[in-house]
Structures are given as C-alpha cells and as structure tokens.
Amino acid sequence: MAKKFVKISLAVKFRLLIGIAAVGIILAALVFPWIVMELAAEQQVRHHGEEVARLAQNRWDREHGHSSDVLTDMAELFALDDLSGVRTGPRFVTIKASAALDPIAQKAVRAFQQNLKQDLVVFSGEDEQDEGTHRLFRRIRTEPRCMECHRAPTGDVVRLQPGEFVGMIDLTLPPPPTPKWLPTVRLAFATGGLVAGLLAFILFAAITQRLVLRPVRILRDIADRVADGDLSIRSTLDSGDELQHLGDSFNSMLSSIGSQTNRLRAANRALDLKLGELSEANVALFEANKVKAEFLANISHELRTPLNSIIGFADLLADASDDRIRRYGQNISSSSKSLLAMINDLLDLAKIEGGKTTVRLDKVSVSGTCQTLVTLIQPLADQKQLSVRLDLAEDLPIITTDGGKLQQILYNLLSNAVKFTPANGGITVTAGLHKPQIVSIVVADTGPGISEAEQNRIFEKFYQADSTLAKQSTGTGLGLAIAKELANLLGGRLTVASSPGAGATFTLTLPVDPKPANGADAADSTDSDPR
Length: 531
Known about the structure:
Elements: H1 10-64, H2 70-73, E1 88-94, H3 103-114, E2 120-124, E3 134-141, H4 147-150, E4 165-173, H5 181-227, H6 242-317, H7 323-353, E5 362-365, H8 366-383, E6 387-392, E7 398-401, H9 403-420, E8 426-435, E9 438-445, H10 452-455, H11 468-472, H12 479-489, E10 493-498, E11 504-511, H13 519-524
Parallel strand pairs: 6-8
Antiparallel strand pairs: 1-4, 2-3, 3-4, 5-7, 8-9, 9-11, 10-11
C-alpha cells in the first residue's frame, strides 16, 4: 500500500517551527523565576514553622521545670492554644510512645535517628485529607538542667543522658494564605509570556517572509516560467546571501541552456536543409533507378529476339563441312549464348527491383528438386572431374514455395560451385530441417574460398571475387545478387560462410509454410552459420 504524504508549504513549516520555538523559549525564560517564587513561598512557610516550633519548645521548657505532673504528661499529647497560625499542636511525643505514632511522625523519628545533627524535619503535602498542609517536627534533646531530675533511677524518675533524643514537637500548619499580590504576579507572568510569544512570532515571521520565503517564491516562479519555455527570464535577487548566489547560479544555467538551445536550433536547421537535399537526391536516385530498370528491361527484351536469331544461324554454321566455318559458328553460338544469359539475368533483376516478379506458391518437394538439379549439373562436374554428393534428411517435409525460383537459386549456387572449384575437388549438397518449420539447403565446395572482406560484397550486382579461378571463369556477376533477391521474395535467407583456402558454404533457409506478413521474419530468425 502506497504511503500518503501531506504536502505542507515552506511558509507553513516556517510559521509552525517559529511558533513552537518562540513558545519554548518564553516558557524556558519564565520557568526559572516561577520556580524561584514558589521556592520563596515554601521557604517562608518553613521559616514560619521553625518560629512556631521554637516558641512552643521555649514554653514547654518553662512549664516543664515547674510542673510536678510533667513526667506522666510526657507520654501524652497536649496543645498550646495561644500559638497563632497553628492548626493542631504543638504536642510533645516521647520516643517510647513511637509505636503509636502515625506514618509521617514515624518517618520524622527515623530521620532524626539517621542524622543526629538534624533538629527540624518538614513534610509538605503528605496529608491525604489536606494536601496543602505542612507538618514540622522539632527534636527535643536533654539539657544539663534536665540532669537534676533524671540523673539516677530513683522512684519513677526516667533516667536520661545529656543530649539524648527524648522527644519531638509535632506542628501541623495549614496552607499559608495566598498573598493578594500573587494572582497579579501570576497573571502578569502569563500575560507577559503571551505578549512576548506573539511579538516574537510576528517578528520572526516577518523576517522569515522577507529574507527566506519571498526569495524562494521568486525562484519558484522563475523555475515555473522556465518550465513553460521562457528562457529569457532572469533572477534579480539582491539579498547578499546564499539565495542570491543560488539565483546567480540559476541565471548562469539559463544562459548556458539558451546558448545550447540556439546551437541546437542552428544544427536542426542545417539538418533540415541536409534532409531536404537528401530527400531530393533520393527522389532523383529513385527516378534514375526506375529509368535504368525500365531501360534494362526494354533493351534486354529487344536484344533477346536478334540474339536468338544469331544463335540459330550460328548453329546452322556449326553443321557446315568447312572446319573453319564450323569453328566460327561455334564461337558465335557460344558468345551469343553468354550474351543471352547476361540479358536474361538483367531482365530478371530488373523485374525483381521493379516489383514486377510474382511468386507462385505451390507444394514443392525439396528432395526431388535437389536430386533434379544435381542430375542436371552432374555433366558439368564430370568435365572437371568433380565429385558431387547429395545428403538428404529422411524427415524433409513438403514445403510451400515457388518451385521455379527455388530451382533458379539452387542452379545458380551449383553452377558457381562447379565454376570455382578446381579439378578433382568436391561439391556437397545437404538438405534437412534446420529448425521446426524451417528447411535449410546447404551447398558446400572445396574451392579457393572467399575472404571475410569479400563476403559482404559477393551479393552485390556485377561483383566478382578477386581470385584466379574467378578471372578464368566467365560470368556476369549477377547470379548471387539475383539468388539473394529471390530468396528474400520466398521469405527465406541466403548466407555464406567461408575462409580463404577452405572452400565456401552457401546456406538457403526457407519456411515450410510461409506467412504473408511475417514469413520473411521467420526465415531471418535462423542462424546464418550452417556449420
């Protein structure tokens, strides 16, 4: 589940932080005098309790020296009603009666026993019935004059030692009356803190608005206008701080972007001009190529009729009784047939490039086609003492293709293999399933091979490999170009793999059932290396 974030503006964040900081600072400044005032009030209560306890002890000392019943009264509680400001007590408590003391008095006894030098203990707010009361306990020690009566165990007189803790005075003081000036002081504290916080907030907000928020808003507006495409805007901040430096950097960035934009526009205009020139040149080249193709088609068609006539008359001369005339007739016939083959190739290529070649799909047996062409090329191979081996896979399917164009491709490959393979060499024709729904036909020879630099050019028109056998052989340089174009028309692919001195291997891949839209893509997905 994506987290949802609440967007808070920078101004709101500053106001919140400034308000919190102002309140915190003012509270911290008011806490100390408030604590001092409360401590002073508590100290006043403590001082009042000490005075009351001292007066009570002095009176007890006076009465204790003259009363004959005081020894029995030491185990009892008594009150002095004429002591002002005392709610209960003071009362005298002996240590022996500590078992009957309340928990607060017991805590006082333990405090006196733990600290022998402490004579006064004060407990504030520990009375469950009245949390505002203060209880004071003052230690009573034996003095030298007490030894007159308590020196020896005679009768019921208690035996005491000098300075011994014999009792304590218990005073319970009510909450001190609130001074009339205290509410006024507290109200003044609260009002002063509120006014100071409000003034601090307003002052800090104004300073932040002028020094931080306004420059940031200006830079944001500039960035928005730049995002809208206005590169002419510039920052005019003059605050002399980091925000001005940021604005200057922003201006430098805009200047750089403007310069780069101008250069890009100039480059785009130049590219547009070049593109226009290239488009015009492309149109001119297309028209020239079209005229060339039409010219080749027309001239080839016009030349075929007289060439056929020349070949016919040359064949008649070949039957003459005169050896010289018969030899001339054979030369004329051979040259005319070569010229006719070239014209036929030019005519086929012109039709392919002009898009006038039609593909007639039919069920074709790859095995039968390969066997027919090997039988057809065998006499030419026998003249050079070449071995021709045919290797057909048993699972070769019947494919859908143009049988005539397939034969033309394979005949071109086989005739080239015979032409460029030296005597006593070998030619191998292999056919099989290269991939599911893809048939491959491989024609390999033991000729001189083709260098890597020439492998990309042998499919060009009128190009012949630079080798001794190529120079000795006659050809137009159009056979492989036509075979390549025909393979593409059939939705297949024609590739070559070779190296100098290791022969050449041509691989034709064809789909078993070509699709009109993606048949070529299916064939192009095959590997080009048959090895």
